[in-house]
Design a protein that fits this description.
CATH architecture of the largest domain: Alpha-Beta Barrel
Number of strands: 23
Number of domains: 2
Helix content: 25-40%
CATH class of the largest domain: Alpha Beta
CATH superfamily of the largest domain: Alanine racemase
Bound molecules: ligand LLP
Shape: globular
Number of helices: 12
Structural class: alpha/beta
Distance between the termini: 58 Å
Strand content: 25-35%
Length: 431
């Protein structure tokens, strides 16, 4: 479930009409539902309750500090991929001791910072990285908790740009090599071998790839527990969400039709808990999209409607710099008007103002007829939306709002235009 729906003819986030937010904060505008975030976290938490576990929210999917604070207050941990993300988590009130640090390119400075802050584990992706962590830890006279990311070489059946668990990718250490790596790492005095980690990809909508990967890695985890006393096994993130709901009378119906085949926390847990429980290790998960994806929308205003010989172009004030997923992955985001429209649908392309043909949100999609000034919501934009935004075409970053019941708060102001070039300097010979 999520908390965006029409009440009468007006599209609402929880108890707030989204149109009222547009009037107050303008467009393009990201709007997040605290209730959806909370419910998604709790559903997964509950489903996994038969095993000792920790949900580490993937900060990369949505790093707004209010979003992080909501999850920190629920007792969540965090999956971070940079020193910057760790600083954000700390600033938001998150506990570094519940953070796992992933990524193939951790710098010395990032390792030092994370070590001083006491992260739960460095999820190392190569032997040179383990050696670097050892060096930094020795210099600081500390012991660094580490896990190795195992690449299980299983196919996740998702988009090529977001699959990570096969040998085609840069991630992790090959399954066959992992034990030897642990044996060598166990001789490095300033490392503590704390766990084993994997992550096979993103937007996975069936439980089978997760189950395959866990089944394959389980004996390895058992041996590492016996030989090296590891205490956790992280099964990564990747749980997929519904982007394309079934349409009933013009309004999206999320869980009735489209949701029937959805990967629910219950289905996920029903298959994985029986495998994980006998292992006797703490289970970590790193969901991003599952928690934040359906919890956010991007609201945009129609600037022009342009009919060419063949097409109906709806030109809006948001663009690929605000939400790059359609341009980058040809991702589908449901698009609906904030005020419900009756009448025949028109095949339309919704496009942004950026000077690229790739700047589109949908192509040849049947949408209600809209005109200048109407507002549209792009649904399921809470994950990998704002966080992937850029200033391309010198467009300021959008504002973000968090809704809680009938309350709404600006949780990031619209970027002032001048801030975009504030760090630029004239070369001395041009002064
Ligand atoms: N853990 C690791 C090690 C990861 O690399 C990722 C995502 C996650 C957890 C969280 O995955 P999730 O639960 O959100 O699927 N920008 C792309 C997605 C990139 C995912 C990168 N890694 C998109 O918009 O679809």
């Amino acid at each position: 479930m999520h908390d965006f729906r029409y009440v009468g003819n007006q599209f609402h986030c929880e108890g707030v009409a989204v149109e009222s937010l547009v009037q107050k904060f303008g467009t393009p505008l990201y709007v997040y539902s605290q209730r959806t975030l909370t419910r998604r976290f709790q559903e997964l938490d509950r489903a996994m309750s038969p095993v000792d576990h920790l949900i580490c929210f993937a900060v990369k999917s949505n790093s707004n500090q209010s979003v992080l604070r909501v999850l920190a207050k629920l007792g969540g941990g965090f999956d971070i991929v940079s020193g910057g993300e760790l600083q954000r988590v700390i600033a938001a009130g998150g506990d570094p001791r519940r953070c796992v640090f992933a990524g193939v390119g951790k710098t010395e400075a990032e390792i030092e910072f994370a070590l001083r802050r006491g992260v739960y584990s460095f999820n190392a992706e190569s032997e040179p990285e383990l050696q670097r962590i050892q060096r930094v830890a020795a210099r600081l006279r500390r012991v660094a908790p580490v896990a190795v990311r195992v690449n299980p070489d299983v196919e996740a059946h998702t988009h090529a740009k977001i699959t990570t668990g096969t040998y085609e990718n840069k991630f992790g250490i090959a399954f066959e090599q992992v034990e030897a790596v642990y044996a060598r790492a166990s001789r490095l005095k300033n490392l503590r071998l704390r766990g084993l980690q994997m992550h096979i990809g993103s937007q996975i909508t069936e439980v089978r790839p997760f189950e395959q990967a866990v089944r394959k890695v389980l004996p390895l985890a058992r041996r590492l527990k016996e030989r090296h006393g590891i205490e956790f096994f992280s099964i990564g993130g990747g749980l997929g969400i519904v982007y394309q709901p079934a349409l009933a009378s013009g309004a999206p119906v999320w869980w009735k039709a489209a949701g029937r085949n959805l990967l629910t926390p219950e289905k996920y847990a029903a298959r994985l808990v029986p495998l994980l429980k006998p292992l006797g290790l703490r289970t970590l998960m790193e969901p991003g999209r599952f928690i934040s994806g359906n919890a956010g929308i991007l609201v945009t205003r129609v600037e022009y409607v342009k009919r060419t010989g063949r097409k109906n172009f709806v030109i809006v004030d948001a663009a690929m710099n605000d939400l790059i997923r359609p341009a980058f992955y040809e991702a589908y985001h449901e698009i609906i008007p904030l005020t419900r429209k009756r009448g025949a649908a028109i095949s339309s392309d919704v496009v942004g103002p950026v000077c690229e043909s790739g700047d589109f949100f949908c192509k040849d999609r049947n949408l209600p007829a809209v005109g200048e000034g109407d507002c549209l919501a792009l649904l399921s934009a809470g994950a990998y939306g704002f966080v992937m935004a850029s200033n391309y075409n010198t467009r300021p970053l959008a504002a973000e709002v968090l809704v809680h019941g009938r309350r709404a708060a600006l949780v990031r102001e619209r970027q002032p235009l001048k801030e975009i070039w504030a760090g630029e300097r004239f070369a001395p010979w041009l002064k």
